[in-house]
Design brief:
The chain has about 425 residues and is of the alpha+beta class. The protein is built from twelve helices and 20 strands. The chain has two domains: about 250 residues, 3-Layer(bba) Sandwich (FAD/NAD(P)-binding domain); about 150 residues, no CATH class. About 45% of the residues are buried.
């Protein structure tokens, strides 16, 4: 891996962007027999890969039913069906295990390297690039793309010319800009005649209006229900983990609904409700509360509530319901029991805004799907251009789905471009 020095380089395939999709595209194109160059503007490859899965690298999701797999994408699921049928989760797991990365499956079918270290994944990809004799140039940002007759004639890198028969854009979105994802390619795409769906943050924490949330900072709730509503109408719901922060809400369940929250905020106020007992309806929960009161009639309310919820939440519940903490549970009247059950099923906060791209795990938006051939990832507008990864208008839930889309689209683009004529 080196910095480009010579004035002109000629290749079969030029891959722009050294993230997960770019590395996969370069490896696949080289294995197809192409002479490949991989251009990365950072000092290292896979910078964003190191952040995935909180540094553990959530490689993919072990959902092997492709129909169910595509349901985990808010946009682009059906578009990805062919890519998944060619290089889906099974193939990704096999690919990395052949490179020496043993994997393990955790909750929600999330697949991680057994070592729990994202650096190990990047290391084997770097070795694979070297093995396939791929020319990797670091600190090599593309400054211009030259077109002629609906084809890319060449690209300019640091004043030097790179010429290839085919080009693969794996230039990412806008999320985590410190890793190099700064949306640079948007102007190139527009100059080529490609449309661009305006980028917006996805899988991002939510700020809320209520001050009491700050008192719960650091509190993590497991497998709670989350419902998004506007004008008293339910818009979206799910189940997962929620984390309270100093500014609002985070955690997988919140990240998965954040895109919809962002869309709804443009129209007005949005309420996010948390259900502490999503497997019980209100009547079943009230029965559970009554049974607990019978079992412990003299226990104080504050200790009783601590058995139903995390300790940090108890003062908030007592304040909302208007009930004393030292009061014996057998003195809790029916209306107070109903209030406790109702609140446990629906604690609502008011979303005010999403955190920005600095905190977003992925970008929603990019090249419109109608402008890409879903079987090859080839542009329908520029004859020798392919796309892979986050630059495509695709985004999925947390749990390895977005990395899977990178691997799959990178593989198809590499196959398509690597079949050099």
């Amino acid at each position: 891996m080196k910095v480009m020095k010579t004035e002109k380089k000629i290749f079969d395939v030029a891959v722009i962007g050294g993230g997960p999709a770019g590395m996969m595209a370069a490896i696949t194109a080289a294995e197809a027999g192409a002479r490949v160059v991989l251009l990365e503007k950072n000092k290292e490859l896979g910078k964003k890969l190191l952040l995935t899965g909180n540094g553990r690298c959530n490689l993919t999701n072990a959902e092997f039913n492709l129909r169910k797999l595509v349901d985990n994408y808010s946009r682009g699921g059906e578009f990805l069906f062919h890519a998944f049928s060619v290089f889906g989760p099974k193939e990704v797991i096999s690919f990395f295990e052949k490179l020496g990365i043993k994997t393990k499956v955790e909750g929600g079918n999330r697949v991680f390297p057994l070592s729990g270290n994202a650096g190990d994944v990047r290391e084997v990809l770097n070795k694979c690039l070297l093995k396939n004799k791929i020319n990797v140039f670091l600190e090599s940002p593309v400054s211009n793309v030259i077109l002629k007759d609906k084809k890319i004639k060449n690209i300019v890198v640091g004043g030097k010319e790179v010429v290839a028969k085919k080009y693969i854009f794996c230039i990412g979105g806008n999320s985590y800009p410190t890793t190099g994802s700064t949306g640079d390619g948007t102007k190139w795409l527009k100059n080529m005649g490609h449309g661009v769906v305006s980028p917006s943050p996805a899988l991002v924490p939510i700020k809320v209006k209520e001050d009491w949330v700050k008192d719960l900072q650091g509190l993590s709730l497991r497998e709670v229900g989350v419902t998004v509503a506007q004008n008293n109408k339910k818009q979206l719901q799910g189940v997962g983990d929620v984390l309270f922060t100093h500014f609002g809400l985070s955690g997988p369940a919140i990240l998965n609904v954040s895109k919809r929250v962002g869309e709804l905020l443009k129209k007005g106020e949005v309420i996010v409700c948390i259900d502490f007992y999503p497997t019980l309806n209100a009547e079943e929960l009230l029965k559970k509360i009554n049974e607990k009161i019978v079992q412990n009639p003299k226990i104080s309310v504050k200790n009783f509530l601590a058995d139903l919820m995390p300790q940090k939440l108890v003062p908030i519940f007592m304040q909302v319901i208007g009930i004393g903490g030292e009061k014996p549970t057998n003195n809790i009247i029916k209306s107070e029991r109903v209030s406790i059950a109702k609140l446990l099923k629906q604690v609502g906060v008011t979303a005010t805004e999403l955190l920005g791209f600095d905190s977003a795990m992925v970008t929603s938006g990019g090249v419109p799907l109608k402008e890409i051939d879903g079987k090859t990832m080839k542009s329908r507008i520029i004859d020798n251009l392919y796309f892979a990864g986050e630059i495509i208008d695709i985004d999925g839930k947390t749990g390895g789905f977005n990395l899977q889309a990178c691997w799959s689209t990178g593989y198809l683009a590499g196959k398509g471009a690597g079949g050099v004529n």
